[in-house]
Amino acid sequence: xxxxxxxxxxxxxxxxxxxxxxxxxxxxxxxxxxxxxxxxxxxxxxxxxxxxxxxxxxxxxxxxxxxxxxxxxxxxxxxxxxxxxxxxxxxxxxxxxxxxxxxxxxxxxxxxxxxxxxxxxxxxxxxxxxxxxxxxxxxxxxxxxxxxxxxxxxxxxxxxxxxxxxxxxxxxxxxxxxxxxxxxxxxxxxxxxxxxxxxxxxxxxxxxxxxxxxxxxxxxxxxxxxxxxxxxxxxxxxxxxxxxxxxxxxxxxxxxxxxxxxxxxxxxxxxxxxxxxxxxxxxxxxxxxxxxxxxxxxxxxxxxxxxxxxxxxxxxxxxxxxxxxxxxxxxxxxxxxxxxxxxxxxxxxxxxxxxxxxxxxxxxxxxxxxxxxxxxxxxxxxxxxxxx
Length: 388
Description:
Number of helices: 15
Shape: globular
Order of helices and strands: HHHHHHHHHHHHHHH
Radius of gyration: 20 Å
Number of strands: 0
């Protein structure tokens, strides 16, 4: 019987990991074709900037609603429904023929992506509780790996001269295969009976502990967002890397982030959640400062690897401990913390640009290096991390 349960849990883990992978694959497929869509629709840089805001606006504006929907209907049902709608909207994006159509699609894309994100993270938390071991880091590692594969598939599609619509249709079919083979292995969660009786904003559940976890996530994702958007610019303008090596900064950061996430679960068991987050903060601060004070191609590559390794485990660790709080439904807790954390991902890149415009990109990185130190301080005071 024990072996049978272990096999069931292992199959559940694979299914959840594949849905994490699907989420990242869909998102990276969209990101990889942004330049082509911009050219196809003759969109200006300013218009593109406005469009790119619509997706996170869709995510943020519907986060409270997402929590209530998942609590009411159960995360399994939402994953099953959401992962049919999410790639379908991607396909419609590829079929869009006007700025207005694309704007509506991107807002809905953000809504669907957020719903899938909260639901699949809730599934991950449920499985952690069932198996009594940390797994969120490896789940997020599957999401990170999908970014690489999504970019490779996009490159293949470009070399084959296939249209954006055909590319996104292939993504839809691929995700549909994963859905068919894995949806029945998701964890059945009991919908909340009290959710219909509850009224008012879910932010009434926000307490000191969730704020602490949210701020840790905010600081980590602010650095992550800055690295995603500015690492190439840093290597181009500050490091003065050769043109063919400009991408080295971004690649080294993303590679170590993916690697660190697959090591994260082991590190949590060995050192505990508090020390993992503290080490994350130290690595991010050290890496950013190293890149500021030693503007050298090799040194900065190693520095960005340190930042990627530091950022790899912090958010999955925060999400893992958030979902285990018994005081509030897991989907609501995750929504509250992820809302605060995601604001860092939105605010970080523009803040870097603003500071850089006033002073220098190195000053931006130096300022953001403080975020890692703040993470260490907050983690040392968060009791929930001691309990874990």
